[in-house]
């Protein structure tokens, strides 16, 4: 592989913003990619993948490079040199890479890799939390799996097209996918590609959605004609799936505390041809009260630590804090208490997170079931998904029935 100057500089500039200015990796990478129209697919791929990899292995690489935050550009070039050396990529003869200690890099890699916090490149507090929650053996496997690059997975929008039809349509755009029996609406890309540029995407034939996440909406046992409330809808990944399962019949009310996310949801629903979706911004408690005892199905896709989706968001290893995890658990308990009131008697509720921590998942449900409100519910079943067992995101979902 030959390293091109403008691409390497683009990576270093992007890392500078992510590491020093606390910017989000996905947003910064997509801004960088807009910088130069002459970059082709390979160039864009190099910038995106390399930046993500260096973010993912930040602790390991910066320790090998012996640099500390805030990082100067010179230091970020050293970190880049570590990445290239460990990948076996020849460094060009630029002043930035002069005196790169190749042997020392390899030696330090071998030594540091003996310790999990370096090998898996995670903060100490996160490692301690993972061990406490999952036990050492499970956590070790899980964090290793979550450090692998995520597959690109599509959810076929069955309101507009069937799985075999989309597979064929994508082949005509040189995108090759495989199906999976366990995930009936999914197409898994054989090779990464920018699917958002395809005609199929513009026509609303699919959404990008991880395979584990695709299991959540079907867990609600949707039938066409139902009244469904998606209480933490965000930009609507699961709302759109609910719309497809309801075959556009009945009503889906999508709620969130952020109006901007709901605006994006509306745009996506239009593209997907999901006509039965209505958004409501939670700007006061009245919005929830109005819906009490009214829904056949309620989805609580709760805000969480995101400790199931590190594959997709490697920078959250560095942004997440212990305090955030503690606080979000309180929010989850409050949300369960308040939003479960939206369900009518005999209706079904799903509580889901993209976390692998039992304290956000089953233990949260167990606690809820002992509260005054929770006593009106019966636990039906749950599913804990680990990235180490499936290769996809870590997720949790619990199905409850309102019996009183
Ligand atoms: C896991 S994300 C939802 C993802 C979304 N359901 C999807 O499939 O794309 C959690 C969402 O909960 C929202 N949220 C946070 N606190 C909330 C609250 N108190 N009430 C409702 N939504 C909340 C966040 O804005 C975020 O969009």
UniProtKB/TrEMBL annotation:
EC number(s) stated in the UniProt entry for this protein: 2.1.1.176
SUPFAM superfamilies: S-adenosyl-L-methionine-dependent methyltransferases
Alphabetically ordered keywords of this record: Methyltransferase, RNA-binding, S-adenosyl-L-methionine, Transferase
Annotated positions binding S-adenosyl-L-methionine: 256, 283, 301
Sequence ranges assigned to domain SAM-dependent MTase RsmB/NOP-type in this UniProt record: 142-403
Active site location: 354 (nucleophile)
Uppermost EC category: transferase
GO BP of this protein: RNA methylation
GO MF: RNA binding; RNA methyltransferase activity
Family per similarity comment: Belongs to the class I-like SAM-binding methyltransferase superfamily. RsmB/NOP family.
Protein name: 16S rRNA (Cytosine967-C5)-methyltransferase
Organism: Mesonia hippocampi
